[in-house]
Each structure stands twice: as C-alpha cells, then as structure tokens.
Amino acid sequence: MIYKKTFGVPEKFVPTYFAPEPKAGIADMPDEISEKITFSVSKRGCRFLIPIEADTAFYGFGLQMKAVNQRGNKITVRCNADPKANTGDSHAPVPFFVTNKGWGIFADTARNAVFYCGNELNRGLRSSDFNAVGESEFIDNTRDLYADKIRENATLTVEIPVAQGADIYYFTGDRIVDIVSQYNMFSGGGCLPPDWGFGNYYRCCGRYNEDEVLAMAKSIREQNIPCDTLGLEPGWQTRSYSCSYVWSEKFKNHKSLLEKLIGMGYKVNLWEHFFVHPSSPIFDDLLPLSADYYVWQGLVPDFSFDEAQRIYADHQHKLVEEGVYGFKVDECDGSDFTGGWSYPDCAEFPSGMDGEQYHHLAGTFGAQTLLKAMGGRPTYSEIRALGPLCSSYPFVLYSDLYDFDDFLRATINSGFSGLLWSPEVRQCETKSDFVRRIQLVAFSAQSLINAWYYDHQPWLDFDAADDVREMFEMRMRLVPYIKKAFVRYRDEGVPPVRSLVCDYKNAKHIEDEYIFGDMIVAPIKPEQAGREVWLPEGEWVMLFDGGEYSGGFHEIKTEKIPVYYRKGEKPEMAEVSQYLPFE
Ligand code: GAL
Predict the structure, then answer these.
(1) Distance of CA 138 to CAs 72, 142, 151, 288, Å?
(2) How far apart are CA 420 and CA 429, in angstroms?
(3) Residue nearest to atom 12 of ligand 1 (CA)
(4) Contact in structure between 390 and 184 (CB atoms under 8 Å)
(5) How much is the pLDDT for 451?
(6) What is the pLDDT of residues 332-384, one digit of tens each?
(7) Residue from 554, 528, 529, 532 nearest 541 by CA
(8) Distance of alpha carbon 545 from the chain centroid
(9) N or C: which end of the chain has fewer CB within 10 A?
(10) Hey, which of 201, 239, 330, 425 would you mutate to test ligand 1's pocket, going by the most ligand atoms within 8 Å of its Cβ?
(11) Which helix (H) or strand (E) segment is 395 a member of?
C-alpha cells in the first residue's frame, strides 16, 4: 500500500510536480501511521522523527556506492559525482528508502535532505532511570568506538533544509521487492527499452575522426564481438565543453558515416551535456530561459520550462532524423570532488528554482528533454545524473571513476531506488581486472565498454578478445531473458537488477551478490580466483557449467562469473547474433 500525508507547507518545486502519472493507487495515511511521525518546523527547515527498531536496516537513498545497509549512518542526499565516502553524495540521490520491517518512505523534496538512520532522543529520563553503574572498557580503535551501538529506542531523523513542510509517502509491503516495486509503479512503472538496447555498447575514442570511427566499427565486426551501439564522445562536435551540438569538420561526411554504420547494424549514440556554447545555434533562444551562471562558458538552460525543452529537443531531433539512436547526457550531476565545475546551489533559475533544487531534478529534465528529441524512436540511452521517480526513463547511469567494489555496490543499490546502472569498463591495469569487469558489466543493466580516451580496443592490451566475445555472446543469448525482466519492470515495477535482500529476507548479510532477472550473480573480484557464494534455499544450477548446488554457502573457484538459476528455470536463450534489428 502507498499512503500519503502532507506535513506543513510543501515547496512548489518537488519531484512529484515534474514526474509522470503514477501507476499505483495512493490512499490517505491512516492515523496509526501518521501518529508515529513527529513533525516540526524551524529556521533550518523541517524535521521528521520516526521510531525504529533495534535491528531496522535501511536501503536506498539513490545510487549509493559506499554502503548497502545504511543503519546508523548519516546520509545527505546530494547530487554529486565521484563521492569519496559514505556521505550520501551521488550521481542520483533519491529521498526514498526501504527498511527490512515492511515499510519505506519517500519524502517529496528536491532539497539536500539529511537522513540520520538511527540516533537516540533525549527522553527526559533522570540519571536514576538508567542502569549506569560500573566502568566502561577502554576501546583503542575508532572502528569499534563508532560502531552502531544504538540498540533500543532509536529514531530515524529526516531533516529537509529550507522547506517548511513536505508530502510524505509511506509504503508498506511484505518483502522489500514488494515495496520497491510499488515505488516504481508510483514513479510511472519501469522503462522497457528496445531489444537492441540489451545488446552491447562500445564508446569510441573522443579524438577519432569519421574514418577512424568507421575503422573501429569494421574491426569490431571482423573480430565477431557482438556490438549494437557505437558511441561518439565529445569530439563529434565543433565545441564540447560547453557544447555546440554541431558536427565538427572531422565528421564532414557524417551523413554517409551514419548510413554506413546503420548498414552494419550499429545504433549511433552521441555524447553531449546541457551547457550550451555561445557558438551553438540554440544559444540565443535559450538565453532568456537560463540560469544566472555559466558552466564552461555555456548557458545552463532551465528545462522546467516546456519552451526550453522544446528549443533544445527540436535541435537534437535533427540529429535523430540523420540516424542517431540515443544520447549520452554527461555532467548533469556536478562534482565537488573533481573540480567543482557546476553551478552553485544558490544559482537562480528563471522558473524560481535554485541551484540545489535544480541539481536534484537536472537528470529528470534531461531524460524528458532527450526523449522529446527522440520523437518516439525507441532508445536506451545514458545519463550521468537522475533523481527521484525516474524508473520510467530508458536511461542508464554510468561513470568511470570507481573501483570494482563501488561498481558492484552501485549495481546492487540501484534497484532500491528505480535506477539502472552500468559498471562500464574502460582501460584497466591488469588482465584480471579487465576480465572481471567485463563479466560484471555483461550482467548489468547495460553492457558497455567506454573507451572515450583510449585509441584502441581495451581488450587488445591483454589479448582478451576471446574473453569479451564470450561474455558479449552470453549477453546476446540472454536478450529474451533480460527483456522478460524489463517487461516485469514496466508492468509490475520489479527491478531487473536488485539486491538479494529484496527477495530473500535472510540475505541481509550478503552485500556482494545480486539478482539479475531471477538469477543470482556472485561476481569474483579482480585478482581473485574464487569466492564464497551464498545461495537461497532450494536447488540451483550454475549457468556456465551446469553444476548443481543447494542453498547455503559454497566455496567456488572459477575463471567465469558465478551465475545461478533455480533448477527447472533455465533462462530462455537466443541464438548469438552480432547485433539486433532496429526498432
Ligand atoms: C566524462 C565522462 C566520460 C567521458 C568524458 C568525455 O565526464 O564520464 O565517460 O564521456 O567525460 O569528456
């Protein structure tokens, strides 16, 4: 069930204001739930207190990369690329979490809300009310000192800055997957990309000209490495930081290039971001609809205006008409950790939004605008920021500045918040790193090699073409299976890639495996030959060698990626093809 209650006076610019129509019913919050929520307003904004149990676990808050269960942590949902610690900074922060206690909460805000997942309130007790006799033991390390010791009387505190109130949506359900699915239906249902989107992606070096792109396309086909989408990085334009959205001289025959690539089965995807260079033909039209800061000397359009979306989309649509099948929308997140190049939180947008709010919604606006540009042509594109209520957009989050553990955690966590994530592969230091990453990406929402600064195929560094072919062929075989999972995402909201704890209540301690469709994936880390794998109750079959296992722990050694389907539920497999038809 989904229940709603308005506390105080909500702000105008909130995620639901811009979101698609919900596909789930919403009831008024009954008293027995709202009585548990203590609400107050102060100069700082507003605050919600909710009692929690000693063993309540918290999952979600968007694309978090540094932890899975956030119990005891302070999470500030703030749009920021390249987070360094478990602060809540994320490409896709979402003020939604789910607990292991049959409930979850979405706070309808575009602010940097702070979630304190387990503090203890001063209940006004006298010293004699405590059992505080005896000495405490000296602890000589901060890990144990700061470990979550709050066991009883704990409280969740949600603080929303600036706002004098917010709508709170309270979700209930048996398993976590039931709650997350409702959140996704509330967001408009999951996306269903075209079949070719489930194939493999290769992004070419940004320095390439049209001949080099064509040579790369041919070389991939010659090696029989299945590839559907070929991405062009910033260099396709005359200007890219900020963007002109005009083909560069290096691509003066781009129409014929696109024709040739289409003839070879490639869907071309163009890199861009939203900062509009003065040489762009849409600069002057967007000027009155833009924020009061430049980024990289470019305008920051206010896409909360339909008119701004239209101007931008009409221009990009010309590229679509020329034969483009998708976009990679870069840098709509901002990053305090790698240069701080974005607009400030106090930036003013002509709609009345400030920079803090716009950061939370920029990805949403980006996806909406580019879908308009596609003009109905199906796409499965990339975007570097998203936010609340985004499950219906066929855009996958990505970024490359992470290690294997972060990539894996993002894969696991993305499904708690209606997000899709690609642990994209680029150049690696060792063959093992490369191969283990290829294995992970082939079992993710989008199978992508991002060679944006690399002038040759990264597999050539390690003589690893066979490894890539094997995994990319497996991906092609699994397309019907992946599609089925996405149909369920669209119709029922079940995330195609999700944490084990979503479906299996007893999997709380398994934070390095995940569910893909309904299969269990237990990736092996680089430089490791094996790992301990936990399987839920029942009988399981390993996808790559047909080995049979019962539920429980197993020591597995393999060069492949351990993937298991439930006995009797072997995935439907397609014939391997180098690419899938256009849709
Ligand atoms: C980065 C992005 C890379 C690549 C690069 C091009 O921000 O994450 O994937 O596209 O920009 O300049």
Answers:
(1) 22, 11, 20, 63
(2) 26
(3) 234
(4) no
(5) 97
(6) 999 999 999 999 999 999 999 999 999 999 999 999 999 999 999 999 999 99
(7) 554
(8) 31
(9) C
(10) 330
(11) strand 395-398
What's the whole-number average pLDDT of the chain?
97
Which 3 state secondary structure label does DSSP give 117?
Answer: strand
User: What are the tens digits of pLDDT across the range 401-425?
Assistant: 899 999 999 999 999 999 999 999 9
- Please give the distance, rounded to the nearest whole angstrom, from the Cα atom of residue 514 to the centre of ligand 1: 27
Name the closest-CA residue to atom 5, ligand 1. Answer: 452
Dist. CA 274 → ligand 1 center (Å): 13
Mean pLDDT of the 169-180 span:
98
pLDDT digits (tens, 9 = 90+) for 11-27: 999 999 999 999 999 99
Q: State in Å: Cα 480 to ligand 1 middle.
A: 31
In this predicted structure, what is the pLDDT of residue 148?
65
Q: Output the six-digit token pair for 381.
A: 């594109």
**Could you tell me the sign of the dihedral formed by the alpha carbons of 144, 148, 151, 154, in that order?**
positive
Give the whole-angstrom CA distance, residue 303 versus residue 346.
17
| Cα 330 to averaged position of ligand 1 atoms, centre (Å) | 7
Q: What is the mean pLDDT of residues 441-468?
A: 97
Peptide bond into 391 cis (omega under 30): no
- Residue 204 CB neighbour total at 10 angstroms: 26
Mutate which of 91, 203, 232, 233 for ligand 1? The one with the most ligand atoms within 8 Å of its CB, which is: 233
Quote the distance between the C-alpha of residue 201 and its chain's center.
17
Across residues 159-171, what is the average pLDDT? 98
188/363 Cα distance (integer angstroms): 16
Strand order in the sheet with 229-232: 421-422, 395-398, 381-383, 324-329, 267-272, 229-232, 200-203, 447-450
Which of 292, 226, 300, 230 shows the shortest CA–CA distance to 258? 230
Q: In the 8-state DSSP scheme, what is residue 37?
A: -
Q: Measuring CA to CA, which residue among 444, 571, 572 is closest to residue 518? A: 571
Burial of 465 (0-12, 13-18, 19+ CB in 10 A): middle
**Sign of the alpha-carbon dihedral angle for 43, 45, 51, 54:** negative
Number of other CB atoms surrounding residue 512 within 10 Å: 18
**Protein residue with least CA distance to atom 1, ligand 1:** 330
Going by their DSSP bridges, the two strands 530-542 and 563-566 should be labelled as antiparallel
Distance CA 349, CA 368 (A): 18
